[in-house]
Structure formats: C-alpha cells, structure tokens
Design goal:
Shape: globular
Distance between the termini: 28 Å
Strand order of the largest sheet: 3-4-5-6-7
Helix content: 25-40%
Strand content: 25-35%
Order of helices and strands: HEEHHHHEEEEEH
Number of strands: 7
Largest sheet: 5 strands, antiparallel
Structural class: alpha+beta
Low-confidence stretches: 1-40
Mean pLDDT: 79
Length: 199
C-alpha cells in the first residue's frame, strides 16, 4: 500500500500543477448559486454565502468532504487492485496555499530527492500509510473567526482512532482545508512541509 500511496500523491500533485482558480459554484442570472461543472458532492446542497459562514455549515462541510474522499479510498481498497482515486481530493477540497505548498514540496523532491520517497511517507487524509474501513466521528467546531475555522474529529482507519484537527479557510465561496494536524502524534503537516523546504 505504500507504493500505492506514492502513486496517489504523484497523481494528486500532477493534477494540482494544472489547477486554476475556478469557482466550485457560480451564480446564475438571478444571482443564485448553482453547481458549476467542477462542483463536487461536498459543495451540495447549494446554499447562500451567509449560510456557509454558519458553524453548522462548517461541520457539515467537513463531514461531506470526508464522506466523498473516503468513499473513493474505501472503494479502491475493496477492489484490491491497488487502484487510486481518479481525482485529487487536495484539488477539490484544500486551500490555494495548501496546494501551492504541495507543489513546492514536489518540486523540491524532484530536485533534491529524485530517487527517494521524499517528504510524503504517509497520507494525511488517512493519517497513515495503509487504509481500511475509513470513517470519521465526533466532528465538532472548535474555533471560528471570520474566514478561518478549526474542526476536530476522530478518524477511524483499520480499527485505529486518531484525533485530528483541521484548519480551514473560507475562499472561492466555500470552506477549504488549509492544514491537517494529527493531535495524538503532534504532527502538523503544514509546518512540517515548511520546515522540510528549509533543509
């Protein structure tokens, strides 16, 4: 599964390299938001911006993101053919700054570690190298200040539970993940990537 994860990360970063600034939703002539061609399952149901700023919506957004992402992971695992998701969850659900940092790490690895695994030896979506029976529970908003929020939950993977904190930014008309933190193991993925780039 480690090899599968590395192929998965390569696919995600390749997709991220070509990412544009398309909106997940767009307004119709009446000014109502409608799903665009790039809208994902986690962008529905369509709601106005004021509702998207509510605490309840932020929790719903995180639950919907993980339901969508884990559906692909679990399906790939059940097929037992080491298939990887065909789309990048980072592209769909992470902030511009997160995706920019991923690209910088990828370019750094290509330049300095072309024959090595590089920075990513685990998957921050599942908090491990392997994955099975993925789900989340006990989702709760722990901070909400304007266009920034934090959500914590229990991540279930292969019978193990990891307490996770997400940092989210409101941009492009919705909430996007800006950082993944493994609270149990004091692992801050964004800070660790920044430190890695300073080597």
């Amino acid at each position: 599964m480690r090899k599968t994860f590395m192929y998965f990360m390569a696919a995600m970063l390749a997709i991220g390299c070509g990412r544009g600034s398309s909106q997940p939703t767009q307004e119709n002539a009446d000014g109502n938001a409608t799903p665009s061609a790039t809208a994902s399952k986690a962008d529905t149901p369509v709601v106005d911006e004021s509702e998207r700023k509510t605490d309840a919506y932020i929790v719903q957004r995180v639950e919907s993101i993980y339901a969508d992402v884990f559906a692909e992971y679990n399906a790939a695992n059940e097929e037992e053919n080491e298939a990887i998701p065909q789309s990048s969850p980072d592209e769909k659900y992470c902030s511009d700054s997160w995706n920019k940092l991923l690209l910088q790490v990828s370019e750094f690895d290509q330049q300095h570690n072309p024959d090595d695994i590089g920075f990513f030896d685990a998957d921050y979506w599942v908090m491990g190298q392997d994955f099975q029976d993925l789900s989340i529970s006990n989702v709760k908003l722990t901070n909400h200040d304007g266009d920034e929020a934090e959500v914590e939950f229990d991540l279930h993977n292969s019978g193990q539970v990891t307490h996770v904190r997400l940092e989210l930014d409101y941009e492009r008309g919705n909430w996007y993940i800006d950082n993944f933190i493994d609270i149990d193991n004091e692992l801050d993925w964004k800070d660790d990537m920044k430190d890695y780039l300073k080597q």
